[in-house]
Amino acid sequence: MSAQILDGRSIARDIRREVRLEVAELTKRTGLVPCLATILVGNDPASTTYVRNKVRACMEVGIVSVGIDLPADLPQDALLHEIARLNRDPSVHAILVQLPLPPHISERLILETILPEKDVDGFHPSNLGGLLAGSPLFVASTPLGILELLTRSNVAIEGKHAVVVGWSVVVGKPTAFLLLQQQATVTICHIKTRDLGFHTRQGDILVVAAGKPALVTGSMVKEGAVVIDVGVNRLADGSLVGDVSFPDVAAKVSLITPVPGGVGPMTVAMLLKNTVHACRLACGGASRGGVESVH
Ligand code: NAP
User: Is-contact 167 190, C-beta < 8 A?
Assistant: First the structure.
């Protein structure tokens, strides 16, 4: 078997086109233009690129973005004040703090300070808890992008065995819960999992989000599986690879995401959708969002 490519770039392009129309309709009806504030602390090159991509994507669909660049040695209190100011500003509907933050700043405290109604990254405990309860205001963009990629590619989830490698708050845990909500049977693997290959071979749907190049090889996947490679790893030669050994896994499975061009573009597209949702919340035009929950 040779896998078909799950083309995140092309699906993300469709979503961005839809978001552009949604923004135009929302602005015509309410007079509001969705606005995303991005906060970048320091000048880490990868973070700078991620924020730049998000800002560019906003511009393309008519979302206003306010970029706040702060020095790496900024005191934690100053960042908390900045977030409090954005929380109060009615013209700002969505707030994103680019992670990671410098070590002297508590990421947990910062993420808890963002108003849940403006928390388009979905990392506030009330949104994480809402996901567990089946009614979050926001779900993190990467897990949401993975679900959207599967749905728009007509991958049936209900009743399937989904295996998620990685249990971070950013990717692994919310992805596992989204798949569970779609009534998959879900296995979550982590660093202490014994015999990772035993588990990954059970996966009709396998999501790998570990940040380890070639963690999953051809002998570790089920014939005909659907593989979502979330990993982004830069090798010594400068190339970008995922967590999955692409050639041998692609030879065995039915569908696979490339890196780059798979999950990454979907993450940005879902951030735009979340920002429009935040604007709808601000004008009272939406209640809960992000995902259709079974329970
Ligand atoms: P993270 O916070 O470092 O989490 C990695 C997870 O993988 C941890 O839960 C870890 O388990 C698990 N893990 C690591 N090695 C493992 C192993 N050998 N066997 C089983 N589990 C293992 O990273 P993250 O934020 O979730 O991101 C994961 C990857 O996705 C990274 O490469 C990141 O760059 C990428 N990413 C991509 C996008 C995108 O849009 N494309 C978005 C976000 C992240 P323990 O906690 O038990 O150690």
Answer: yes
Determine the atom of ligand 1 nearest the C-alpha atom of 243.
32
- Of ligand 1's listed atoms, the one at least distance from the Cα of 262 is 41
**243 assigned to active site:** no
What's the Cα-to-Cα distance from 126 to each of 15, 122, 131, 268, rounded to whole Å?
A: 27, 9, 9, 22
Catalytic site includes residue 98: yes
| Domain limits, the chain | 29-116, 141-264
d(CA 88, ligand 1 centre) in Å:
34
Q: Cα dihedral sign for 274, 51, 167, 84? A: negative
121 is catalytic: yes
Do the bridges between strand 226-229 and strand 4-5 make them parallel or antiparallel, or are there none, so unpaired? unpaired
Asked if CATH classification 3.40.50.10860 holds for the domain at 29-116, the reply, yes or no, is yes
Q: Residue 262 carries which DSSP code?
A: S
- How does pLDDT run across 182-206, given as a tens digit for each residue? 999 999 999 999 999 999 999 999 9
| Amino acid letter, residue 204 | D
Q: Is 130 in the pocket of ligand 1 (CB under 6 A)?
A: no
> So what CATH class is 141-264?
alpha beta
pLDDT in tens, 198-256: 999 999 999 999 999 999 999 999 999 999 999 999 999 999 999 999 999 999 999 99
Atom of ligand 1 nearest to the CA of 259: 41
Instruction: Kindly name the residue from 14, 28, 44, 54 that is annotated as catalytic.
Output: 54
User: Are 29-116 and 141-264 in the same CATH fold?
Assistant: yes
